[in-house]
Amino acid sequence: MDIESELRQAMTDAVGAETATPDLVEGVWRKRRRHRARNRALIAAGAIVVVAATIPTYGALTGDSQESVVSSARCTPEIPSRVLPEWARGGFSEKEPRMPYVLGEHGDIIAILFGSPLSSPPRKDVSNKILWVSRPPLTTSGPLTIKASLPGGTMFTTQVPGGPGPSIIDLPKAGCWHLTLTWSQHTDTMDLLYSSPPS
């Protein structure tokens, strides 16, 4: 006996053969099928949520989407030219200047790379020129202090007199340098790649 026949028989036993009409049985059967379809849809939706929750999320959490892409990069061999954030466009004549740049992890300072790609030792034809721009206003005078380190323990410290501004930063070795930047009671970090120049 199939399920529909069993259902008809059960209804006949419960309410009598006259009450359990074919139309009533069909109506109950349609409701049963809809209920089962809804349950399957809920189970599938729950599975999607579980899978989505296990997928890691990448990217920085500060700044707009454009800044996030740049600040999340770790020692990318080639930093592409991008439109500078509005707060870092001082001194540029273009309405939307494009330059290679790296944003600090906290979004408080930007390194605009006039000498991209940076090299150690410096290239003969291009210097390692970096324009530093602070997002928060400068509340005190003083230098921009740069403490740079390489995996393995190599460390180097230098300063930009007068605070964030134009500089030439020559680091002693090629590698992925982690920079801690301190200026005007602010601190931020970033990674910069110094490559060996072509021979």
What would your notes on this structure say?
The protein has 199 residues and is an alpha+beta fold. The protein folds into two domains: 3-54; 65-194, Immunoglobulin-like. 27% of the residues lie in helices and 27% in strands. It has three helices and nine strands; from the N terminus they run αααβββββββββ. The strands form two sheets. Strands 1-2-3-4-7 form a five-stranded antiparallel β-sheet. Strands 6-5-8-9 form a four-stranded antiparallel β-sheet, with no helix packed on it. Strand 8 and strand 9 form a beta hairpin. The chain is globular, with a radius of gyration of 32 Å. The model is unreliable at 45-72 (pLDDT under 50).
Structural class comes to: alpha+beta
CATH uppermost class of the largest domain: Mainly Beta
The number of helical runs is 3
User: How would you state the average pLDDT, rounded?
Assistant: 77
Q: How many DSSP E strands? A: 9
Low-confidence segments, given as residue ranges, are 45-72
Strand content: 25-35%
Main sheet attributes: strand count, strand direction, barrel closure: 5 strands, antiparallel
Q: Total domains, how many?
A: 2
Strand order of the largest sheet: 1-2-3-4-7
Helix percentage: 25-40%
H-E string: HHHEEEEEEEEE
Quickly give the CATH architecture of the largest domain: Sandwich
